[in-house]
Structures are given as C-alpha cells and as structure tokens.
Amino acid sequence: MTFSIELFITSLLMGIGLAMDAFSVSVANGLNEPFMSKRKMLAVSGVFAFFQFMMPFIGWFCVSTVVNYFKIFEPFIPYIAFGLLSFIGGKMIYDGIKCDCAECTAVGLAGLIVQGIATSIDALSVGFTIASYKFLEALLSCIIIGVVTFAICFVGIIIGKRIGNAFSSKASILGGIILVLIGIEIFVTGVF
Q: Rounded distance, CA 95 to CA 176, Å?
C-alpha cells in the first residue's frame, strides 16, 4: 500500500470505530464533571488520543516483526484481523446495548490513564490489520487514528456537559458496527 486516499479513508474509519469507546467515556466524564475546564478537556482528549495512536502502532510493530521473521503467518492476518475486530466490535455492540454508564465518574490522572488503556486495548488488534503497511504508512495511519480520537473525545466531553449520557451507549453500538465492517472488508480483500 502507498500513501493514498484509500489509506486515509481506511485510517479515518478505523479512527472513528476505535474512538467510540473513548467517546462514550468522554461523554460520561463530561456529564459527571459539567464545569470541566478547557485545559482538562484538552488533557482528557489527549490521553485518549495518545493511547489510540500508540496501541495500533505497537500492534503493527509486533506483527510486522513476526511476519518478517515468520512469513508463514502472513496468510492468516486477514483471518486474525477479522476474528479480533468482529469479537471486539461484537462486544462493543453488546456493551452498548446493555450499558449502564452510572459507574462512569470524573477521574484524576491515574484513573484517566486507566480509562485510556481500557478504551484503546482493542486498538492493539488494528496492528494486525495494518501489518502490510510500511513504517511511514503505519505511522500516518496511527496519527490519523489519534487525531480523529482527539476530536471525537473533545466533542464527547462537550456533549456530556450539555446533554447527558443517553447518547453514549449508542456510540458504542456504532463503533462496534464500524469495527465489524472493517473486519469484514479486511477479510474479503485479504482472502479473495
């Protein structure tokens, strides 16, 4: 793959899909801290963006290293990506339907880091989906994912501060659907 509109659009869609958990938590954080300062809003969004940037990059690095040494795993990448994204997307849909965001509360830095890790752990599997990318392509893709996450989380905090958490569970469902669709697309293009 080269730098292209396809790389941009795929990364943008992955960013949207992956950011939905962080969006949901951002909405809840905004709801629970209605007088959150702009500085803290930027910091919260930045933490989520950082983890959504780093996790796929770490996943890419691990998979591309393994694939470079063990070419036998390469044909299995579409199956692995499809399985992981479908599982994670399905879990997001399930959690979005059953979500009771009452347990989400305003947090300090340590709690925010835990939230950032918890909402981005699924992004690690995106490293499998971008395993065929060269270094700069993977880096660009991860940057796009991080920027999209930052913007979505910032908006999520604003929504949470103004409207409430009724919309947050719907965001998880949408994020799950997007991840499943990306998994299907990767499987179809990788296998056929």
A: 9
Q: Is there a contact between 180 and 90 (Cβ–Cβ < 8 Å)? A: yes
How many angstroms separate the CA atoms of 150 and 132, rounded? 26
pLDDT tens figures, 100-123: 554 444 567 877 887 888 778 778
Sign of the dihedral defined by the CA atoms of residues 110, 24, 57, 118, in that order: positive
Q: What is the CA angle 155-160-165, rounded to 5?
A: 125
Q: What is the Cα–Cα distance from 168 to 101, expressed in whole angstroms?
A: 8
- Whether pTM > 0.85 for this model: the answer is no
Tell me how far apart the alpha carbons of residues 5 and 21 are, in angstroms, rounded to a whole number.
Answer: 26
Identify whether the C-beta of residue 117 lies closer than 8 Å to the C-beta of residue 54: no
- pLDDT tens across 11-43, in order? 999 999 889 888 888 887 887 777 889 999 999
Domain residue ranges of the chain, discontinuous segments joined by + = 15-191
